[in-house]
Amino acid sequence: MAETRRPERILLVHNAYQQRGGEDMVAEAEAALLRAHGHAVIEYRRHNDEIAGQSRADIALQTLWSRRTMREMGKLLDDELPDVVHVHNTFPLISPSLYTACAQAGVPVVQTLHNFRLLCPQAMFLREGRVCEDCLGRLPWRGAVRGCYRDSRLQSTVLTGMLLTHRALGTWQQHITRYIALNDFCRDKFIAGGLPAERISVKPNFVDFALPPPGTRKGFLFVGRLSPEKGVSVLGRATRMLDSIELRVAGTGPEAAALADLPGVDLLGGLDMGAVYRQMCRSEALVLPSIWYENFPRTLVEAYACGLPVIASRIGALAELVRDGETGLLFEPGDPSALATCLRWAQAHPREMAAMGQRARARYEAEFTGERNYGQLMTIYRQAMAETPASQAA
Question: Can you tell me the distance from the alpha carbon of 71 to that of 83, in angstroms, rounded to the nearest whole number?
């Protein structure tokens, strides 16, 4: 009689952001996916709301090394005996001391690389509205001198200190068993930055949406934080170049003024996922005018699931994720005239856009469903377990 494999016990780790975003949603979605497949999922979470009331010195010390994490994780690992620890974000409260706690317990660690924090103190390779790779493959001291993180030399120095300290300790090389990059473009950047190529697997984000019923689609949609790196000002300037447009904007943020009072632009504010889904099912295209290296915007895979083509900047992974003329349209990043040209073409070719939406849904079904993602995730977990002697002996 064949032996039945016991479902792995997974300990998920995530430091949630003050403004809920894609990383938080991915961490929650993967926890739900694992539980749906019968796994025991233990979670170790901190939230950046805890920062309120703490001194800068306390936050800086926690960013470098959290004694609380060592204590709490040590107990959790002893009590729960997980087969693998999957980390999403440790910044700033959990800290890289997490990895040492796992190494001492002999438990393999899988780290999802949601952004470029391990290579760039600012995490986005973006400086003064342009892509900046000055710290890629080098010591990131420039980020401290320039105050790249939140325009603060003090905060940037703390982050740079954390990166330099744990590079020197070998944390990224020795205490993380496997890394997950969200696409090939990002994997190549992490390899260029010094992470071990043989330990970086590619696994995209996912969503589970049923095929939407057919219906009339009209207008364009932007979903996301209204912040500079998202290309909001580019979108605003592009809409001014059009004779008419119907653009719905779901999100809030400091760049909202760039879209306020523009003819044909409807600012919807922040929407829950159900409302975003309904907007996607009634739109002609999602617009993604980002000016930074998006790792894998969750809104893109949500759009594909809704049969919605994407008009995106030809930058970073977006040029890989959107197939120009097949699942959407690409334009040069930061160029409002090029974006306006794409929007005009889309307005004039609704049948072609509808066909792109059908191909987008087909790509979603082939690559970005929860079931496909689960198989990829388990392969990575089992590779990590096989590569960790303590897990083999357990």
Answer: 19
Task: Kindly provide the b/e burial profile for residues 255-266, where b requires at least 16 CB atoms within 10 angstroms of the residue's own CB.
Answer: bbebbeebeebe
How far lies 238's CA from each of 207, 261, 320, 364, in Å?
30, 14, 23, 29
Average pLDDT, the chain: 94
For tokens 């003024």, name the residue.
257
d(CA 214, CA 191): 43
The per-residue pLDDT for 287 is 98
Classify 44 as helix, strand or coil.
strand
Which of 81, 169, 6 lies closest to 390 in space, CA to CA?
Answer: 81
Q: Model pTM?
A: 0.94
Structure-token pair, residue 47: 């939230």
One DSSP character per residue, 276-307 reads HHHHHHT-SEEEE---S--S--HHHHHHHHTT
